[in-house]
Specification:
- This protein is an alpha/beta fold.
- It contains 26 helices and 23 strands.
- Strand 22 and strand 23 form a beta hairpin.
- Helix 19 packs across helix 20.
């Protein structure tokens, strides 16, 4: 059967094993096949990738996929290759030879169906040079909210995507995202110059998810209770790396099979831990937000946020990793008053003043030894920990400066990623044979490489130095020396394993005296961040509005009814059942607080009820209705 004759349903069945599409998928795919520009808004776990993968498989040619995250690109390429679908990825950290080889192969290899490219690669001279020869049948833009400066993860290099239309005027675009407000949706269409796009929006409502906020001053004990009262695997999201280790240790000590995950682990260790969790050998993974993107585990039953994220977009995306099998699952946010105080402090940390940003830019240039007016597009290994130590900078504020320099299109900082060692023979067969004859000490080692790894003359092949060392019973240091010498002699190109962020200069290196930063733009970005923080705090604090509706209304969906099973809805039911009691408790609380400031623990001891839940519900309503308020010392006052 020729590829042009297959139907989307056949592709779905043959490669993914599904008999039918999820709601909206078939309509989106047909829109793409009809040649329309298409914008697809599907919730986390809604099957966005199939919406561009299937139609591109139906048509001859290659789908150009633009994606912002290296880890996500690598995961998708690996998942496609497991289904015998050929795919490649180009991102920061690959050298010129690797990129050139991938692009040359993409121009002629009819079996290659997907080329994943990070957005900063689009305007490089090498990519533009090859673009006319790439048999592109569709442009897919993943995480499309990144193109909008009003989005929660704005990436200025995404603004370059629209320029592709000048080179590919007859190729349609599909843009996909799981998290976008009305303002962001409109901005996506404008920035991508979509031509009368077909817009498909599935409600962000996840009816199988039970959203819960728990106010607690002892988060660890509350977390333990939640996990013990639930079943199945789960994730616990925390702020920093140390917390992941501390929480995993705490849970293990209390009989919960747990592990930790963060970006500071080696790639091999991250993969090992991830697989243990996916295969249910680890029940709970305590992790930073480095965990989850691209991971396919539909039966996760619980996601707990130990700390409040910066915005509802991030919370929705991370919480949405629960219940992708559409069975009931729980999404719990643990919160206390200090979270709000810390969130407000972060505004200053995330948006430093202009002088601090300029000094950081100067320090980067000195650290990497980049001269004024040096040409752009150069990438450097960049160890932020070492950088901060050298200049005695404050870590979090420095990272914020780097992100602002990125948003103002001066640099690009990619996330750290693990890349195994790779080799490719770069001389001819005849030259290699001559080298082996003339260099007997390298002959046996060269033959071993040729026997162990196929395709070395055609492609970069991943190798494992330790495995080679074990095979020939030599120290691994000797293997490194052999490979490095062959690299120096230009017999092969040896790219040693690394795991480090890449920093790329997007524009030519500026003199700090003339460095101009747009104050108006930065002020707008700061205000957007403040509004997102405020929306997140409103969700995390006591409310009489259904949690699911709070989430949906943030995304401009006002059509949903109360879910009936979030903590607000359940509390309301209980409150109605105990209305007479609550009226008594309300009057008692007000009478006690009128006598002078008091904390909630002492207040509970003075009221007549021993039902902590009723007391908490009444107190929450009094706070929500502004009859009471906390001062900075967490003492209650009458308003």
């Amino acid at each position: 059967m020729e590829q042009s004759q297959v139907t989307p349903q056949q592709i779905l069945k043959n490669y993914w094993g599904y008999n039918q599409f999820r709601p909206l998928q078939a309509d989106i795919i047909q829109s793409v096949l009809d040649g329309k520009d298409t914008l697809a808004l599907l919730p986390t776990g809604g099957g966005k990738s199939l919406c561009f993968q299937v139609p591109s498989m139906v048509k001859p040619g290659l789908c150009l996929v633009i994606s912002p995250l290296i880890a996500l690109m690598k995961d998708q390429v690996e998942n496609l290759e497991k289904r015998n679908i050929k795919a490649k990825a180009i991102y920061s950290g690959l050298n010129y030879r690797e990129i050139n080889l991938i692009l040359n192969n993409a121009c002629v290899d009819e079996d290659l169906k997907f080329l994943y490219v990070s957005p900063e690669r689009l305007n490089t001279s090498l990519f533009i040079e090859k673009l006319p020869y790439l048999p592109i049948n569709l442009i897919a833009i993943d995480e499309a909210h990144c193109i909008s400066q009003w989005g929660h993860d704005f990436r200025p290099e995404y603004r370059q995507i629209a320029e592709l239309r000048q080179h590919l005027p007859n190729i349609n675009i599909i843009a996909l995202t799981a998290t976008a407000t009305k303002q962001v949706i409109e901005d996506i269409q404008t920035q991508l110059a979509l031509k009368t796009p077909a817009v498909f929006a599935k409600s962000f409502e996840r009816k199988n998810l039970q959203y819960i906020v728990r106010q607690t001053e002892n988060k660890a004990e509350k977390l333990l209770a939640i996990i013990k009262n639930s079943h199945g695997s789960g994730l616990v999201y925390v702020r920093n790396r140390k917390q992941t280790e501390d929480i995993a240790k705490f849970l293990n000590q209390n009989g919960i099979a747990s592990d930790f995950y963060h970006a500071g682990l080696s790639g091999e260790m991250r993969s090992y831990k991830q697989n243990l969790w996916i295969n249910n050998r680890t029940r709970i993974m305590a992790c930073t937000n480095a965990f989850g993107m691209g991971i396919d585990k539909p039966d996760c039953r619980l996601v707990v946020h130990f700390e409040m994220p910066d915005c509802l977009e991030a919370y929705y995306q991370e919480a949405g990793r629960a219940g992708r099998d559409e069975r009931p699952a729980f999404c719990v946010l643990l919160h206390d008053a200090s979270n709000d105080i810390n969130a407000k402090k972060k505004i200053g940390v995330n948006y430093p003043d202009i002088n601090e940003i300029s000094l950081t830019y100067q320090a980067i240039c000195d650290y990497l030894q980049v001269q004024v007016n040096a040409k752009p597009e150069r990438s450097f290994d960049f160890d932020i920990v070492s950088f901060v130590k050298r200049y005695n900078f404050e870590a979090f504020k420095t990272y914020s400066c780097l992100k602002i320099l990125e948003q103002t299109n001066l640099i690009l900082l990619s996330e750290a990623f693990y890349e195994p060692s790779k080799i490719k023979i770069i001389c001819s067969h005849e030259a290699l044979y001559k080298f082996q004859v003339e260099n007997a000490t390298f002959d046996a080692f060269t033959k071993l490489l040729l026997r162990s790894y196929g395709g070395l003359f055609d492609n970069y092949i991943r190798i494992n130095e330790l495995e080679i060392a074990n095979r020939v019973k030599l120290p691994v240091a000797s293997i490194y020396k052999y490979l490095e010498k062959l690299h120096q002699l230009e017999i092969l190109d040896y790219i040693k394993t690394k795991e480090v962020s890449q920093l790329t200069f997007v524009t030519e290196r500026q003199d700090i005296k003339y460095l101009t930063l747009n104050k108006k733009y930065l002020a707008e970005r700061k205000q957007t961040y403040i509004e997102k923080i405020q929306a997140m705090m409103a969700y995390a604090n006591p409310s009489d509005l259904c949690r699911s509706r709070q989430m949906l209304e943030y995304f401009n969906d006002y059509s949903a009814n109360d879910c009936g099973y979030c903590d607000v809805c359940i509390d309301r039911k209980k409150l109605n059942e105990k209305k007479e009691l609550t009226q008594i408790i309300e009057q008692e609380i007000l009478t006690i607080v009128q006598q002078g400031p008091i904390n909630s623990v002492d207040l509970f001891e003075k009221v007549s009820t021993q039902d902590m839940q009723v007391f908490t519900i009444v107190l929450r309503l009094l706070l929500d209705n502004n009859k009471l308020h906390y001062d900075s010392a967490y003492q209650l006052h009458c308003s």
